[in-house]
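Tip: read the tokens left to right.
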């Protein structure tokens, strides 16, 4: 469990830094820290807490953000805050609106899409079934919101690492999707990861999507090099989807 590792964050056993001192440095509640430390809180720890603990961990502890995420049941729970100017609900609305305006059918899966893979959790930010992948049949399309935790170089490496894990898990039959898209709201990182991944060739449908968080519109979808042929249906987008009434579609109206 996640907070077994946070004991190390206090450093050596003879350290004078108490749990309360550590919590004060992190800016987190000592009582909440205690609940996680004693495994009394069954929910995954929020991502902001993971980041704070990793940032204030004792150097000799060896605690890193990746270690904490892995110990946190492989998940990084958060409030889906992508950017000060955009929310997960707006992202869903933007994508859904574009697909519906392009005459594709869309519906939400009826069951949870989270899958446990050898202690790690594969849990897309959002999943739909749509004809946008196969114009005849409904196919499963997973979306991952990319949250930034480190430098550009760190994020590039983390992306490639997670990409290879996901592809491996798909080949082994642990997860199943017809298309997977990573969503970015930072254009510089989006371009950097395109360059990083340009040498890869995969055998599944995976793309990167950049959404302008200020204009609240899709700018570009980039398909990773693949042995499969699939359309980049989300770009170019030559239509106005900036009307706020379109950003929160009624789930009941989706086919």
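Filled-in amino acids:
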């Amino acid at each position: 469990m996640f907070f077994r590792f946070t004991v190390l964050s206090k450093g050596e056993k003879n350290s004078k830094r108490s749990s309360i001192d550590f919590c004060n440095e992190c800016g987190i509640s000592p009582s909440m820290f205690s609940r996680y430390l004693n495994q009394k809180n069954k929910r995954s720890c929020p991502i902001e807490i993971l980041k704070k603990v990793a940032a204030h961990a004792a150097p000799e502890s060896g605690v890193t953000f990746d270690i904490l995420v892995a110990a946190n049941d492989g998940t990084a729970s958060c409030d889906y805050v992508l950017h000060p100017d955009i929310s997960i609900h707006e992202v869903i609305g933007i994508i859904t609106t574009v697909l519906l305006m392009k005459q594709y059918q869309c519906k939400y899966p009826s069951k949870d899409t989270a899958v446990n893979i050898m202690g790690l959790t594969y849990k897309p930010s959002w999943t739909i079934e749509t004809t946008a992948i196969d114009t005849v049949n409904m196919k499963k399309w997973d979306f991952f919101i990319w949250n930034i935790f480190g430098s550009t170089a760190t994020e590039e490496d983390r992306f490639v690492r997670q990409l290879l894990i996901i592809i491996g898990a798909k080949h082994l039959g642990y997860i199943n999707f017809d298309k997977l898209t990573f969503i970015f709201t930072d254009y510089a990182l989006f371009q950097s990861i395109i360059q990083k991944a340009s040498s890869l060739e995969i055998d599944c449908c995976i793309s990167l999507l950049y959404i302008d968080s200020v204009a609240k519109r899709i700018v570009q979808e980039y398909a990773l090099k693949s042995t499969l042929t699939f359309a980049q249906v989300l770009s170019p987008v030559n239509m106005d989807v900036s009307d706020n009434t379109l950003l929160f579609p009624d789930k009941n109206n989706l086919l």
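Confidence is low (pLDDT under 50) at residues 1-8, 10-14, 76-82, 239-255. The first helix runs from residue 19 to 26.
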